Amino acid sequence: MEIIEPTDKDKGLYHIQIIDTDKTYTRTIDLSGNAYDKAFAEFTTLKEEAYAEAKRGKVLGGLPDVVTIMEKKTLSLTCTVCGDPKPQVTWLKNGAEVYTDDQYLVSLESGKFASLTIKRVSLEDCGRYTMTVQNKYGGESVDIVVSAYKHGDTIPQAKPTLTPKSIIPPKRPIEIPGPKVVTPAPSPAPSHVSSPVGAKSPTSPKGLKSPTPARSMKSPTPTRRKSKNHFSLCGP
């Protein structure tokens, strides 16, 4: 059984049963209290180290271990680096940092192509160069031994004692970002429906007219009726 991303709700007693044809074996594991705290601390450490290992600065390749070059030539040391966030690259010569000047050119293109260019190499440029790639999750450094010879001389066979690639530990505490919370986009406001341009109010068809009473019809007039007291409805 494996518990992925353990939380406090996973604390408790766990029972394991192994049953065969003759007997049942039962074991109990108390995953609470001090036992849980130790297990959780180890889990957190391993998780942080795995995350840092995936994100730290790395040298992917391209650099030689040893370089031998003729004097007055141009030497370019180039390699590919990676890391998230993008790492910083530093070049050292015999332990002292190398800066860009008239002879040395230090560059980092697109955050992944690192290079050191030495113009008109001389015997004074010989030595051990170290490139360091590092971000907040750690990094690594590699050594390159540079030697030079004069025109017409026999190319020297350098046999340096190289140090293995050095791993730079991450800065503590290791920050692991939480899951991203996606905020839903607001619903668009309802659009106002307007009357089409040039629309006119409906009118009656041209051929229809208001009805008029027929000429043969007259307004009704009251008929004279007499009551028992002989009163007239039309006047005295």
TrEMBL record:
<feature type="compositionally biased region" description="Low complexity">
    <location>
        <begin position="179"/>
        <end position="197"/>
    </location>
</feature>
<protein>
    <recommendedName>
        <fullName>Ig-like domain-containing protein</fullName>
    </recommendedName>
</protein>
<dbReference type="GO" id="GO:0007156">
    <property type="term" value="P:homophilic cell adhesion via plasma membrane adhesion molecules"/>
</dbReference>
<dbReference type="InterPro" id="IPR036179">
    <property type="entry name" value="Ig-like_dom_sf"/>
</dbReference>
<dbReference type="InterPro" id="IPR013098">
    <property type="entry name" value="Ig_I-set"/>
</dbReference>
<keyword id="KW-0732">Signal</keyword>
<feature type="domain" description="Ig-like">
    <location>
        <begin position="71"/>
        <end position="147"/>
    </location>
</feature>
<feature type="region of interest" description="Disordered">
    <location>
        <begin position="156"/>
        <end position="236"/>
    </location>
</feature>
<dbReference type="InterPro" id="IPR007110">
    <property type="entry name" value="Ig-like_dom"/>
</dbReference>
<dbReference type="Pfam" id="PF07679">
    <property type="entry name" value="I-set"/>
</dbReference>
<dbReference type="InterPro" id="IPR003598">
    <property type="entry name" value="Ig_sub2"/>
</dbReference>
<dbReference type="InterPro" id="IPR013783">
    <property type="entry name" value="Ig-like_fold"/>
</dbReference>
<dbReference type="GO" id="GO:0005886">
    <property type="term" value="C:plasma membrane"/>
</dbReference>
<dbReference type="InterPro" id="IPR050958">
    <property type="entry name" value="Cell_Adh-Cytoskel_Orgn"/>
</dbReference>
<dbReference type="InterPro" id="IPR003599">
    <property type="entry name" value="Ig_sub"/>
</dbReference>
<keyword id="KW-1015">Disulfide bond</keyword>
